[in-house]
Every structure is written in structure tokens, then in C-alpha cells.
UniProtKB/TrEMBL annotation:
Cited Pfam families: Sigma70_r2, Sigma70_r4_2
Protein species of origin: Parahalioglobus pacificus
Name of the protein in its database record: RNA polymerase subunit sigma-24
Transmembrane domains' residue ranges: none
Domain RNA polymerase sigma factor 70 region 4 type: 122-173
Record flagged with keyword Transcription regulation: yes
BP GO terms, sorted: DNA-templated transcription initiation
Alphabetized SUPFAM superfamilies for the sequence: Sigma2 domain of RNA polymerase sigma factors, Sigma3 and sigma4 domains of RNA polymerase sigma factors
Top-level lineage group: Bacteria
Length: 184
């Protein structure tokens, strides 16, 4: 489905949702639940927290659906809510040691992901050592496959900033992985 068709579909679902159509809201959840969960998991490294963030993200989105600006992509607006919720959860949980958990989604993904469970765990562990800004750009680009323009909207920063953050995040992630003995 093309981006314009996606935008039109999402716009129609949002309008129907604003009119009280529960099926339209359910359709939005079905379209974006997996992506928001994956985003939250990559940001937090914890299944339960990711599930909570996903639920909270949709609740907040639907409570504030009237503030959505249809000039922008719905998924960008929703991802921004998801990133904010993940960061808020991370701050609340600061100092709590996460449990080692396997990556829940082994589907098609970014260049960093492979079918190797051990490598997946090492990459997630390294990702959790990055700061929030770097983890967000890596997650959005490589796991959610967002364009630079979409990332700029989601993160509310200029595209140039997105590019420089991503460059630095990749460099730092490579350093963490190298220090852990993980080779490309």
C-alpha cells in the first residue's frame, strides 16, 4: 500500500473513531499494535513494560485523537506517543535491573537483526547501553524502518539532527558490540 493510500486510510479511520466508531479504533490498533510493541520493547528491553507502554500509548492516542493533525502521518504521531511513554517508563524504572529475555519478534527486520538468538540478545543488551536518544534513532530506523523525514517528525527534531544522531548511535552501538566481542 502506498504512503498516500495509507494516509487516506488512517485519516478515514481517525475520522470514524472521532465519531465513536469502535471498529475504526480497533482497526488502528490492529494496524499499529505490533509496531508500537516492538518499538517499546527495543526501547525498554522488557516484555511486560513494552506491553504496558503499548496499551498506554493507544489509550492516550484515543483520548487525544481530536488533537491529531491529519497533515502528518498517523503512525508518526502514534510513534511519538509511544517513544514518550517508553522514555517515561524508563525514567520510572531507573535503577531496576531488567531480566534477560529473548527478543520476542524474530520476523523480517533491520540489518542488525538476524535469526541467531544469541546475536539478538547481544544486540538488545548493547542497545540498552545506549542513551535514550541513540536507542530511539536506532530503533526507529532499523527496527521500525522509518525514513529520516518520519523520524524527524516523530522525534520533533530537524532531519539533519536525526542523521547526526543516527551516525553517532551506530558508532556507539558498534563500539559496545565490539567491546563485548561481537563481530559483524
Amino acid at each position: 500500500m502506498g504512503k498516500e493510500m495509507e494516509r487516506a486510510r488512517d485519516g478515514q479511520l481517525v475520522q470514524r473513531g472521532l465519531q465513536g466508531d469502535r471498529q475504526a479504533l480497533e482497526a488502528l490498533v490492529n494496524l499499529y499494535h505490533g509496531a508500537i510493541y516492538k518499538l517499546a520493547y527495543r526501547m525498554l528491553g522488557n516484555r511486560e513494560d513494552a506491553a504496558d507502554v503499548t496499551q498506554t500509548c493507544f489509550l492516550k492516542a484515543f483520548e487525544n485523537l481530536g488533537s491529531y493533525n491529519p497533515e502528518y502521518k498517523f503512525f508518526s504521531w502514534l510513534y511519538r506517543i509511544g517513544i514518550n511513554e517508553a522514555l517515561n517508563t524508563r525514567r520510572r524504572n531507573a535503577g531496576i535491573e531488567p531480566l534477560d529475555q529473548p527478543i520476542p519478534d524474530q520476523g523480517d527486520g533491520p540489518e542488525l537483526a538476524t535469526g541467531n538468538d544469541e546475536l539478538q540478545t547481544q544486540v538488545q543488551t548493547a542497545l540498552m547501553q545506549l542513551n535514550d536518544e541513540h536507542r530511539a534513532v536506532i530503533t526507529l530506523r532499523h527496527y521500525s524502518e522509518c525514513s529520516y523525514a518520519d523520524m524527524a517528525v516523530i522525534l520533533a527534531v530537524p532531519e539533519k539532527t536525526v542523521r547526526s544522531r543516527l551516525f553517532e548511535a551506530r558508532r556507539k552501538l558498534q563500539g559496545v558490540l565490539s567491546a563485548a566481542g561481537v563481530e559483524r
